[in-house]
Design a protein that fits this description.
- The protein is built from 11 helices and 21 strands.
- By secondary structure, it is α/β, with parallel strands linked by helices.
- The chain has 3 domains: about 230 residues, Metallo-dependent phosphatases (Purple Acid Phosphatase, chain A, domain 2, 4-Layer Sandwich); about 90 residues, no CATH class; about 80 residues, no CATH class.
- The strands form 5 sheets. Strands 1, 2, 3, 4, 13, 14 and 15 form a 7-stranded mixed sheet that branches. Strands 5-6-7-10-12-11 form a 6-stranded mixed sheet, with no helix packed on it.
- Helix 1 packs parallel to helix 2, helix 9 runs antiparallel to helix 11 and helix 10 packs across helix 11.
- The longest helix is centred in the C-terminal third of the chain and has 26 residues.
């Protein structure tokens, strides 16, 4: 039997992709349906979060039911579980569509035999679930001569104290005697180490944080209730990546542009596939004090920039991370008693720099804890704040020096 597996489609949510005017909240679902039919699979497995949220029901209902009907007409059985986003929507769907079997409604383990495979699954009973669902797994469900496949939406290796999304240990999967588990919730596809379990990932990357290739998984049975090694199949026509750009010793606009183009071409040449590449830039190196990266790399310029590669196009995202340092001789600037010397000495003093970094961190954390920003992803670490403080001080020094030089003209 051939089984196509996916999760985290989040219908109703439009992927945040530049230069794309034809992307809708159901585009990735339509691509999944098309791939399942073209591969002539017998089953499509949906491991939760098929719909973004309850409010997306009206937008998602038509495309979802139409896709289910297409799969049913092609002789493809759809089997799924509910995730934390669609815990309320999937039970309603089960009552309205004959083309899908949803397992484990209400947070109770359930199995479904289809041809030579027994599918075992559990669905979220609500938007949050802090208990380990595998703690209530009934081993008697595995007593069969059929091939076994588990389906679960969960957070593997998460702390049960902090996770609200069905936290499980990777060791729990082995205790079930099910040879392969198909999982949802984590949007990055991949297999779990030390466990016969794979995260489907989102079939289309939904935003720039979901880097790398996205698609679906193909599983096939062998004789004797065994499984072939799962095969990942890319279907997303684009991919988000991060590219580091070395701007060491650049001092003009043209040198910035040359270094940027070279770094992106070198990076693009290492990538395989035919997807369009959307790059988030990380700028590094020591640059001339007169270089103004925000003036050169404006959001508009980055949106319009594209590099043709052998099999795909590479685009730059409109924002960047600036890890560069200005080419200033702090030791030399410490001479004297003016404000420039005073600031230079502070930047060379580890205690003063640490104090500035702590202030940056406190302001950052206060911003992210504010109600307007609490959903943003704050990933700064201690070294980042030190770099931010040092760079801010250097830029202030450069402005002070430029002002001083201008006043002497």
């Amino acid at each position: 039997m051939k089984i196509l597996s996916c999760a985290d489609i989040h219908m109703g949510r439009i992927p945040s992709v530049l230069n794309s005017t034809n992307m809708t909240g159901s585009t990735s679902w339509e691509a999944v349906v098309e791939k399942a039919i073209s591969l002539h699979v017998e089953v499509l497995v949906l491991a939760g979060d098929v719909v973004e949220q309850e409010q997306a029901w009206f937008e998602a209902y038509g495309p979802l039911v139409r896709g289910l009907e297409q799969l049913g007409n092609a002789g493809i059985q759809v089997i799924g579980v509910g995730g934390n986003h669609d815990a309320k929507i999937f039970p309603r769907l089960a009552n309205e569509s004959k083309d899908i079997k949803i397992l484990g409604l209400g947070g109770v383990w359930e199995y479904f035999d289809y041809q030579e495979v027994r599918f075992v699954g559990w669905s979220f009973p609500g938007n949050h679930h802090q208990e380990n669902p595998l703690a209530g797994f009934d081993p008697s469900m595995t007593l069969t001569d059929k091939a076994l496949l588990g389906i679960l939406h969960c957070e593997a290796n998460a702390s049960p104290v902090y996770s609200k999304y069905a936290p499980v240990s990777v060791h729990d999967f082995a205790r079930t005697n099910i040879p392969w588990w198909v999982l949802g919730h984590i949007h990055k596809p991949g297999t779990l180490p030390s466990a016969k379990a794979l995260y489907c990932g989102s079939p289309y990357a939904l935003d720039s944080n979901e880097k790398g290739v996205h698609g679906v998984w193909l599983l096939e049975t062998l004789a004797g209730s065994q499984w072939k090694t799962p095969q990942f199949i890319p279907i997303c026509p684009y991919r988000f990546e991060t590219c580091s750009v070395d701007l060491s010793k650049v001092s003009t606009d043209e040198e910035v542009q040359t270094s940027l183009t070279k770094s992106l071409r070198d990076f693009g040449s290492t990538l395989e596939g035919e997807e369009a590449v959307l790059c988030h830039l990380v700028l590094e190196g020591t640059i001339g004090k007169q270089v103004n990266l925000k003036r050169i790399l404006t959001p508009e310029n980055l949106r319009n920039f594209a590099i043709p590669l052998k099999e795909h196009m590479l685009y730059t995202l409109p924002d960047f991370e600036d890890h560069t340092e200005l080419m200033l001789n702090l030791e030399e600037l410490t001479q004297g008693a003016g404000p420039v010397a005073l600031l230079a000495r502070k930047l060379l003093d580890p205690a003063c720099l640490s104090d500035l970094a702590s202030k940056y961190q406190r302001l950052d954390e206060e911003s992210f804890n504010a109600s307007a920003y609490h959903l943003l992803n704050n990933e700064h670490v201690e070294n980042d704040y030190t770099l931010l403080a040092k760079n801010a001080g250097k830029r202030l020094l450069a402005a002070m020096l430029a002002s001083s030089e201008g006043s002497q003209l």
